[in-house]
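Box S2. Input/output pair 1.
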Amino acid sequence: MSYEVACVIVEPMSTVTTPRTRPPATTTAPPRARLDWRLRFGALSLIWGFSFLLIKVGTEAYAPFQVTLGRLVFGTAVLLAAMAVKRQRLPRGARLWGHMAVAAFLLNALPFSLFAYAELTIPSTLGGICNATSPLWGMVLSLVALSEDRPTRVRVAGLMLGFLGVLTVLGVWQGFQGLDATGTAMALLASLSYPVGWIYVRRTLAGTGNSHLSMTGGQLLLATVQLAVVTPLFTGVPRHFSLVALLAVAALGALGTGFAVLLQYGLVAEVGPTTAQMVTYFIPVIATAAGVAILGESLHWTTPVGAAVVIAGAALTQLRPKSA
């Protein structure tokens, strides 16, 4: 549901987000004790899985654009603080910032806003499941836009299986199970926005020489500015301030959009993108469990069955033939 998820979903398509090699070991400084990667993997899955619940709670009191703006403000603050600690600067160059502005719109401002608007009318469980379709959209777009990305029978089968799972979740043979078509379309469009953004990133921002942290910090900063301009045009000042909803937005931004990206970068560097991207398949499971257990959302049999099919199909689309 976020830029961070997209960077591992479309990792083979991008050279910006995923380090290919680990930094050389040094003998001058003693190694720091680090939390086991499995625990960090689990924490990342929980953070992103609960993001859909936090969106739902936030939109119960604030307008979708306000939720998105708050999310970006808190997320950007975390990354800028991390940059300050590591003494990193924002990227430079007008042309670079122009491309980053487009990436910020496609990977942050647009999908975050669409998910927030979608959850006005659809349950958070469905939002989490729609997010899992990003690998499916990514494969379709990569076949069209990236000539070097050739399909295999397994990946095509995964694509067909994944979209069959989407139809199962929606219960199309029963009239969409009473689900709101507009909200569902927004959630699916949000998931489509991620691979579109990463194709753009690959074509325009690959090999800039800037660190992942500085590029992400700059991108979130630009997305925050975009929402700061748009939000007053479509929303007014809230008449009542809900502390619970405000805390949900703060957690969504600081944890789900700020701290989570730091966790994800560490996982990719330590265990590689293939293992790190597996977090994508836990997100709809956790989102569904959270929505049902905490928000009391109803669960028809088509939801878990369809979600399992979507996840299986998405996993198959990420399988690539081994190089000789």
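Box S3. Input/output pair 2.
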Amino acid sequence: MNDIREVEAVVIGAGQAGLSSAYHLRRTGFEPGRDFVVLDHSPGPGGAWQFRWPSLTYGKVHGMHALPGMELTEADPARPSSEVITEYFDRYERAFDLRVRRPVDVRAVREGTGGRLLVETSDGDWSARALINATGTWDRPFWPRYPGQETFRGRQLHTAQYPGPEAFAGLRVVVVGGGASGTQHLLEIAPLAAETTWVTRRPPVWREGPFDEEAGRAAVALVEERVRQGLPPRSVVSVTGLPLNDAIRQGLADGVLDRQPMFDRITPDGVAWADGRQVSADVILWATGFRPAVEHLAPLRLRERGGGIRVEGTRAVADPRVHLVGYGPSASTVGANRAGRAAVRDIRRLLEEEPVAA
């Protein structure tokens, strides 16, 4: 059995939120490998970006904010975002000597001894006085359940498995979901597919005009209020609506973005509504979002009755040693940067106030 290694802080995840947090830990005097460790279960740098589909070029990425301390410059907008951002994250890790350990699966975080947290992983265990959880959502795609789903003879896949539009050539495709991914998938697939149908639970909300700083703060505040109440976080786009850009306008004019209400059941050959309408399909593409990947925190009993983890700033209210970065209102690239800095500030204060138990 491996000995338990002791550090001041463990960072779980090496996407935007994890790297930002590690940067601020290092900048305030924590030594990588000695005072803190970054654990990442992905095979290489890039966070969730490394798994994005090839047709999502860097020029199509909305609101990518640079990591603290190093700008992302001269990126070719025509290159896949998975390549551009993975290379950027790799350079960043090496430039600041963050020493990310991967691939490491974190299995559970539980109460340790002496007031410490025990982080159990596939690469042995760690004991820490504080934890930054920056695991994002990519590993928890949300699949809604509908009657008859198991009878469908075609293919069902989620955004997390989206291979690009070429895979849908000549097929009848139902795209489910009214977020950014759903509309992007639909606009890419429609020119190649035999037929597309777009269904969403709610009518899409199109946002005209610039999304300025004041509007951004208002949107983040709405998401933040949910996590303060211990409710599951919603995405920022769910409260901002979708930008009415040139591609969207063309899709509306062409009839591609002709939204239909959510179907009531799935048949072996497609989907059906309660009024008797049916649509045949070869593929159902679920662009239905993701949920926070926090199952490994279950032993700490952080969840509230509402189903979420109540958070003040980045700190879990039920356990001040635990900070969630990239959760709820900080689940954006600029939000993750700010949250990483705030989490490190609070952790430093916590460690200064609470000496290590004997």
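Caption for Box S3: The mean pLDDT is 90. The radius of gyration is 22 Å.
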